[in-house]
Amino acid sequence: MPTYKAPGVYIKENAALPTSVAAVETAIPAFIGYTEKAVKGGQSVTGLPVRLTSLTEFEHIFGGPPVLQFGLTQSATSQNTGFAHAGNHFGLIRPSPYFRLYRSMQLYFSNGGGACYVISAGTYSEKEIARASLQNALDRLLTEPLPAMLVIPEAVSLKEPDCLTLQQSMLEHCAIQTQRRIAILDIFNGFEPITHSVAAFRNQINTATTGGFGAAYYPWLNTVLLRSDRLTYTIFDAPARALLQRIIAHELGRLDRQTRALLDALTEDSTSYHTKQKRPPRQHRRSPDTVDKAFRSLSQVYVSAINACAQEVNLLPPSAALAGIYAKTDMTRGVWKAPANVSINGVVAPAETVSEGEQQILNDDPDGKSVNTIRAFAGKGTLVWGARTLWGNDLQWRYISVRRTCIMLEQSIQKALNASVFEPNDEQVWMAVEHMIGQFLSGLWRQGALAGNTPDEAFYVSCGLGKSMTQADLNADRLVVQLGVAVTKPAEFIVLTIRRDMHQP
């Protein structure tokens, strides 16, 4: 401390460091997919990250669900969703392209999701879901610092090779390009047995350098987002309606004139109903709702066909639901709590039943590619039953909560250290940094984020020459902070090293 020997005014310059570290937000995912529109304030926002907080706001900017029309095919087996009549199975043919983002956003908000970012890669007018468009949208996210999760529900609507290529890019985006978010991945055709879907995923995804920043979930979910009574026969395309007409005619047998007229209505162009010119009342076409109501009372085949369509629309990959659960867990319990043993809202059951033995196969992979299971339990509902990253063999980064907690710590401390740029790289700054970060970690320890009976057991912070820095660091104007945090039990320290160039903002 300087000695003042003469009267006068003395000026002492203090390092302009903040007095505390503020935890960055962790409950914010980014979604990428196709939308009905992408207009905000009269301007196109296609390809741009847009922050929103509710489904109502999403609909205002991006519109509603796509208008779907399924095809029908007669098959000898019942492998695909459909219905049976007279010993024959009639399976649904999904429309192409098959957009999933809107329903996924419904699932996200129904599971506790709040603020998020959405990037529209294109509109429903596109003739295909293109990997290049989704990749371009992903690249636009590189400059957006806030999202802590990455979700692309449309990935599974691509062909399998393109889906896996995009998911590989998602992992690289999180692990290499940004290092500040985690990718939540769906299993391609995750409604199939694990011997098909999970095996293909594990064989083709490369997690050697990126797996600690990603988590995968299986199986898909049978949701209740769309009620079957909201659908009519217009959910089928023209060839499918013609086939359905013949099947119902066979089911009903002898037909009176009124029933024949109803059957004829099935193959009328339903799109012209609301635009027809005025005609005498007896020439008015029946509305789809009127025809639908009549057939629901006449034909079990019709009811089964409509229910099959609702079931197919409600079959969704789980990533959006998990993003909502991550967000809710962060907000109510803390990012350090595992997003597992949590019931999924808006779900009837998993698309596949996973046994205890299959659970072990999913958890324990020789290459560490753990896949988290979603299981149904009597009296508890459909639960998330796993919390591992794709580095299941790595004792340090095995768990999602550990990775996300460390991302939060790094980002929070980096943000606080921005104030040290251009400050003298001296002992005063080093002591201030140690105190500031120590106070931050002590607060987290008191909340239960860190393990240990005392703060000394839970963490340490080191900053200074001979401790975390060398003379070479000092010569290069680098401030280096080393901290260890016990975020797992047993309380093994995970060491983080944070560097800040003092002469660069």
Describe the model.
This protein has 505 residues and is α/β, with parallel strands linked by helices. It folds into 3 domains: 272 residues, 3-Layer(aba) Sandwich (Rossmann fold), CATH 3.40.50.11780; 79 residues, no CATH class; 85 residues, Dihydrodipicolinate Reductase, domain 2 (2-Layer Sandwich). Helix content is 35%, strand content 18%. It is built from 15 helices and 20 strands. The strands form 5 sheets. The protein has a 9-stranded mixed sheet with strand order 4-8-1-9-10-11-16-17-14, sandwiched between helices. Strand 10, helix 5 and strand 11 form a beta-alpha-beta unit. Helix 2 runs parallel beside helix 10, helix 3 packs parallel to helix 4 and helix 6 packs antiparallel against helix 7. The radius of gyration is 28 Å and the shape is elongated. The two termini are 30 Å apart. About 3% of the residues have low confidence.
Note the topology.
Elements: E1 29-35, E2 39-40, E3 43-44, E4 50-52, H1 55-62, E5 71-75, E6 82-85, E7 88-93, H2 101-110, E8 116-123, H3 131-140, E9 149-151, H4 160-178, E10 182-186, H5 197-204, E11 214-218, E12 221-223, H6 238-252, H7 257-266, H8 288-298, H9 300-313, E13 315-316, H10 319-332, E14 342-343, E15 347-350, H11 356-363, E16 371-377, E17 381-384, H12 400-417, H13 427-447, H14 455-458, E18 459-463, H15 471-475, E19 478-485, E20 494-501
Helix pairs in contact: 2-10, 3-4, 6-7
